[in-house]
Each structure stands twice: as structure tokens, then as C-alpha cells.
């Protein structure tokens, strides 16, 4: 059977009926799901008339899906999207944001580290006129090593991305529908959401939120993920800076380098002709050839980058995940 896509199942529903969708990526969180779902239901029931909680099972192998199915059978406002495999937290968030029906969409971790009681505060802030309100874990409940690496990563992001947030990594965020629908999250992109949105002109605010220790299961991120996250950061930064016309950047560098190489070559030829120096003892000819070659490489890279960006834009409708089942009475 072909995989379902968001648009296949969304066609005949009425998004205006649901005020709030909560999206929760799940990867092996069996022990955390029921207590969290109960907390979440209590908060949502007291605050909103029409809501849905969308759990995205990102290929769990610990029986999380069984628990989610039970939760859905007990309360059909709890809905489940089950991936065919483990695609990662970003694709899981992407799927949840794609499927969400609410006017406002909140994302949060499914391990209980984010506190459902913070949701109304984020939504209130959103109503002050923002498109995205991001949680700031001012008092983080993670081991020291993790807090340090996360501080370091936040500093790097600030330096590269130019958006001024205290905390980029917090999953607990609230979005207005247009912002929620205007993101393609692949790789480790969930770490850069505020930058991606503010580059597109969305207004972002930050609100301090509670952060709790994990009570069951294990963290899915170790320090080995840092280099991957860093590469994605460079990628996001580069994308923002140069995606318009990479050829303009690479081509300029290429021309500069070829120019310097050619001048060095001409100078070397002049020296040779006037026999005023023994060229074989200088590095000048080698330098000239080297610079011209580098220049050609830059130029070709620019052309390749242009081609691949066009290809990317063309293929952009491709989702970064595959869905196995959807548990949702509305769809
Ligand atoms: N997660 C996911 N797919 C993954 C890794 C993580 O859906 O490949 C989910 C995980 O179940 C949790 C959230 O993403 O709800 C954050 O993961 P985790 O708690 O391990 O990260 P940490 O809080 O340690 O940074
Ligand atoms: Mg966690």
C-alpha cells in the first residue's frame, strides 16, 4: 500500500472546529505516555472546548504504539500518527504540524519534561500578536554536561542566526496556524525553528517555562549528535545567506581567485621573458596554476549549488517521513 500523505486524509475535515492541537513526537516513551496524556487532558479540558492531541510515533520499538492505541480508544481526541520507521524528531514534528487541525498548534516532548500546565501561558502570549511563542527553560532539569553543551549550542546559534533567544532547543512552542504550516523540518532542523520563522517575517516571543526531569526511558540525544546539529546549523545559515543565488557567491570567489592566478601567471611570464629571476626557484608559477584551478572549482561549485537548489525547490513537496497508520475518527 502507498503511504498516506497529509493532504490525502485532510481533505474532508473542517479545521475551524478545533481551537488547539498539541503535537507530541514519540520515540520509545512507553512509560511516560499515560501519565503525560492524563496531565495534558486535564489542562486542555479545563481551558479549551475543542482540542486534539496528536501523538506521532516515530518508529518506537518498546510498545509505545500499543499504549497510544489504548489512549486513542479511551478518548478519540487523542490521535496517533504512526511512522514506518524512526525518521527523527524533526520529521515527527513536521508530520504533526502537517496534520494538525487547530487554529493554534502547540508542540511538546512526550517524555514529560515539558509541563502541560505551561500551554495556556504560551497561548495567551501568542494572542498578544505573535506567530510563534517559544519556551525558555530558564531552570533546566538536565544533567550538567547536557546543560553545558546545550548552552554552547545556543550561543553558536545566536552567533550564526542572529535571532536573539535564550533557548532554541525547547520543543514546547505555540504557533498560529500559518506559521505551523509554513515549515519543512528535516534533519535536526527543529533546533532552528525560531530562526527559520523570523527569516520569513513571523513574529517570535519567548516565555519562561517549567522543565522537569525525565521519569522513565532514556534521552535519545547524546553528545554524538552535536556535530550533526552543527552541520545542520551551517546548512541553515548558508541557506539563509546564499540560497537566492549561490552562483553569485561562489562565482565571485571563483572569478577573484582566477584573476589573482592569472595576474601571478602574467607576472611570472614577464619575469621569465626579462630573465630577471630564476623562476624555477620561486613558487610563483605553482601559485598561479593553483589559484586558477581553485577559481575554476569555486565557479563549478556555484553552478552545482544553483542546480541542486532548483532541484530541491522542485522536490520540496516530498515529505521527510512515511506514515504507516493514522488513528483518528475524523479522518
Ligand atoms: N524523539 C523522537 N524521535 C527521535 C528522538 C526523539 O520523536 O528520533 C522524541 C522523544 O520521544 C521526545 C523528544 O523527541 O519526546 C525529545 O527527545 P529526548 O527527550 O530524548 O531529548 P532531550 O530532552 O534529552 O533533549
Ligand atoms: Mg527529554
TrEMBL record:
Pfam families: Glycos_transf_2
Residues of the Glycosyltransferase 2-like domain: 21-182
Annotated EC: 2.4.-.-
Transmembrane segments annotated in the record for this chain: 247-270, 282-305
Cross-referenced InterPro entries: Glyco_trans_2-like (IPR001173), Glycosyltransferase_2 (IPR050256), Nucleotide-diphossugar_trans (IPR029044)
Chloroplast listed as a keyword: no
Keyword Transmembrane: yes
Domain of life: Archaea
Name the UniProt record assigns to this protein: Glycosyltransferase family 2 protein
Species of provenance: Salinirubrum litoreum
